[in-house]
């Protein structure tokens, strides 16, 4: 059966300690997303090297879900799951904005269908 993928692409605020972010990912981020039974698999990646060309983002998450329409949940992302929505708001405050400089990170979300065969 073809899988449904949610791709999140983003950058962290300038000056972020990557070791601190990786620890946060392991201990907080994974727990928040993986507690939802409709999320079949969730993993967080950082680009370590560009080999040909360069993406606009350095970080991305791959999330396999059971249904894209349900994932959007009446205009709310993450199935409207309050645990994930609260976590996402806290994540944005901590990692995707810098009040001192006014920097705001962009998080893109794309849905993809596996070409299965």
The main sheet orders its strands as 2-3-1-6
CATH architecture: 2-Layer Sandwich
Per CATH, what is the topology?
Answer: Alpha-Beta Plaits
- N-to-C CA distance: 8 Å
Could you describe the largest sheet, including whether it forms a barrel? 4 strands, antiparallel
Number of helical stretches of at least 4 residues: 3
Number of domains: 1
- Beta strands, count: 6
| Main structural class | alpha+beta
Unreliable segments of 5+ consecutive residues:
none
Provide the CATH top-level class: Alpha Beta
Write the layout of secondary structure elements.
Blueprint: E1 4-10, H1 18-34, E2 39-46, E3 59-65, H2 68-72, H3 82-95, E4 97-98, E5 103-104, E6 107-113
Antiparallel strand pairs: 1-3, 1-6, 2-3, 4-5
Helix pairs in contact: 1-3
Can you put this structure into words, describing what you see?
This protein has helices at 18-34, 68-72, 82-95; strands spanning 4-10, 39-46, 59-65, 97-98, 103-104, 107-113. With 117 residues, the protein is an alpha+beta fold. Helix content is 31%, strand content 28%. 9% of the residues are buried. It has one domain (4-113): Alpha-Beta Plaits (2-Layer Sandwich), CATH 3.30.70. Strand 4 (97-98) and strand 5 form a beta hairpin. It is globular. The strands form two sheets. Strands 2-3-1-6 form a four-stranded antiparallel β-sheet, with helices on one face. A two-stranded antiparallel ribbon has the order 4-5. Helix 1 runs antiparallel to helix 3.
Keywords summarizing the entry:
Alpha-Beta Plaits; four-stranded antiparallel beta sheet; about 120 residues; alpha+beta
């Amino acid at each position: 059966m073809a899988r449904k993928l949610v791709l999140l692409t983003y950058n962290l605020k300038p000056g972020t300690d990557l070791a601190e972010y990786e620890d946060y990912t392991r201990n907080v981020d994974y727990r928040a997303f993986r507690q939802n039974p409709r999320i079949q698999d969730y993993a967080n990646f950082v680009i370590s090297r560009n080999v040909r060309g360069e993406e606009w983002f350095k970080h991305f998450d791959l999330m396999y879900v059971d249904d894209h329409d349900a994932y959007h949940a009446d205009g709310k992302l993450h199935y409207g799951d309050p645990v994930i929505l609260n976590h996402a708001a806290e994540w944005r405050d901590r990692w995707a904005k810098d009040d001192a400089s006014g920097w705001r990170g962009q998080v893109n979300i794309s849905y993809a269908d596996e070409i299965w065969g």
